[in-house]
Amino acid sequence: MQTIRQYTDTEKEVIKSFFTDVEWDAIDSSLSDYQDYGEEATELMVSISNKMYDLFAPKYQDENRHPDSGAN
């Protein structure tokens, strides 16, 4: 599997804006079905799902957003 470059938060927001929330939900649902097509399809689904998670996962360690949280 190839290495994927890191995207800035701004770039991630642009990527997320390509689709509506409803469209992203449809993509996610379709991926769940796609994994039923065998091992290769499952590996591809995991790869895509990981990238989607990276797009939508909150940043818990962002001291600029939560300077008094003590998380960093």
Give the SSE map.
Layout: H1 9-16, H2 21-34, H3 39-56
Description:
This protein is mainly alpha-helical. 56% of the residues lie in helices and 0% in strands. It has a domain at 11-54. It has helices at 9-16, 21-34, 39-56.
In short:
With 72 residues, the chain is mostly helical. It has helices spanning 9-16, 21-34, 39-56.
* Largest sheet report: none
Q: List SSEs in N-to-C order.
A: HHH
Distance between the termini: 32 Å
Rg for CA atoms: 15 Å
The shape is globular
Number of strands: 0
Number of helices: 3
**Unreliable stretches covering 5 or more consecutive residues:** none
Helix/strand-derived category reads mainly alpha
Q: Which band does the percent of strand residues land in?
A: under 5%
**What is the residue-mean pLDDT, rounded to a whole number?**
80
Give the % helix: 55-70%
Features:
single chain; 72 residues; mainly alpha; 0% strand
